[in-house]
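Reopening: 3-hydroxybutyrate dehydrogenase still failing for me.
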Amino acid sequence: MTSRCILITGAGSGIGAGIALELATAGHHLVVTDLSLPAAEAVAAQIQAAGGSAEALALDVTSDASVAAALDALSRPVDVLVNNAGLQHVAPLEEFPIDRWDLLIQVMLVGVARLTRALLPGMRERGFGRIVNIGSIHSLVGSRYKSAYVAAKHGLLGFSKVIALETADTDITINTICPTYVKTPLVDKQIADQARANNLPESQVVSEIMLKPMPKGVFIGFDELAGITAFLISPPARNITGHTIDVDGGWTVQ
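Support: Ran it again with your exact input. Result attached.
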């Protein structure tokens, strides 16, 4: 596969870091971005220590100024954008602080549009671009106490369909990967939150809420998400655009 410059948001930990570390082994240059620059630098250092190519940048996807500053600091043009930055808040809507609700939408939906909008002109000019959104099982189904997260992740699918149509005249694609639970710090925090919201012990949250709807009953691995991303940016996937790739262990086939 041709080496690409891949920018990943929210790559200082969790899914973003896992995908970055995996894709770096294939010879790609990784632009590791995160709200926390030290976290991004730590992941970039891991990649470099293993012989890979990476740079780290601070990036707040809710800020036009931060996006502009990050793009100005890039060492090379971006071929692939992985929109991964995210956060979670678990609460019934009546108890959900509206500023927190708004922040989730700003990061996971408006932020995706902001960064995609900023990078599209360069992709068009070079005649190539790949955009991969990290959605969720909650792009496809709902769960109690996650109204903002579910709304944002559902919105990604509609956004992707529209951008697929708007970029159909050039070699740019946009797709959304929708995994069930991946064992990350974000999910670890959700276990405690879900235990409180559902009045369950934490051990039962994993078995009864997270994994029970999945016939395969296992967490999704970083290698799976990185492998699917690698496929979506490869030549055989050049006509796959505006689609969702469900990585749900059979959840939605029932």
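Residues 182-219 form one domain. If you still see a failure, please send the error message rather than a screenshot.
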